[in-house]
Design brief:
The structure is a single chain. This protein is an alpha/beta fold. The chain has a five-stranded parallel β-sheet, with helices on both faces. It is globular. The chain starts with 8 loop residues before the first helix and ends with a helix.
């Protein structure tokens, strides 16, 4: 059993202050992002709703924390967000380990999402491409395949948008959190995803609040 660790009072206070700064930095980053992201988030909601109304679907992909965000987003749409409603067509391309590992083994890791988009994507579907750096090769490859198929892209990035910013086509939507720290970018990404879910539900089913 580990013995209790007794820290000096000044170290406890320093740690407490550090934690409080994390909360403050996160809140300020969100407030700053609201000024630039509210309009493009609304554009992304309208794009996704138009696809769903035409019988399309929303695919999501990303790596690491962004893979978890992809799954979170797809689950909120397919199951429910904050209101009871019919399930919406959404899937994360990050969940099937047999598919992911076979593509990575037989071809290359940068193809793990692109081949799924190739197989599953249809014209006027939407791909939600997530990368905090904007430079994830496999996400960029998925965007390229989406464009070949007439699948619209919503890119959720950070910093300057990276190479993904330059890979967007007219009609795509770029949601870029212009922060530098990965943790802050990821925290805003989660809020953006919840805004998308709320916006989609509101446009499809009305505001019942």
């Amino acid at each position: 059993m580990l013995e209790s660790i007794h820290l000096p009072l000044d170290e406890i206070m320093n740690l407490t202050d550090r934690i409080a700064r994390q909360f403050g930095d996160s809140a300020q980053t969100k407030l700053d992002a609201a000024k630039t992201l509210a309009e493009p988030i609304a554009d992304a909601c309208r794009l996704m709703v138009a696809s769903l109304r035409m019988g399309g679907k929303i695919m999501a992909c990303g790596n690491g924390g962004s893979a978890a965000d992809s799954q979170h987003f797809a689950a909120e749409l397919l199951n429910r967000f904050e209101k009871e409603r019919v399930p919406l067509a959404a899937l994360a391309l990050t969940t099937d380990t047999s598919t992911l590992t076979s593509i990575a083994n037989d071809y290359a890791f940068d193809q793990v999402f692109a081949k799924q988009v190739w197989a599953l994507g249809r014209k006027d579907d939407v791909l939600l491409a997530i990368s905090t750096s904007g430079n994830s090769p496999n996400v960029i490859e998925a965007m390229a395949k989406a464009h070949e198929l007439g699948v619209h892209v919503v890119a959720l990035t950070g910093k300057s948008g990276g190479h993904m910013a330059g890979a967007l086509h007219p009609g795509d939507v770029h949601l870029c959190v212009t922060a530098e720290r990965t943790a802050r970018i990821q925290e805003v990404h989660l809020l953006v995803l919840h805004c998308l879910c709320d916006g989609i539900d509101t446009l499809l089913f009305g505001d019942n609040e």
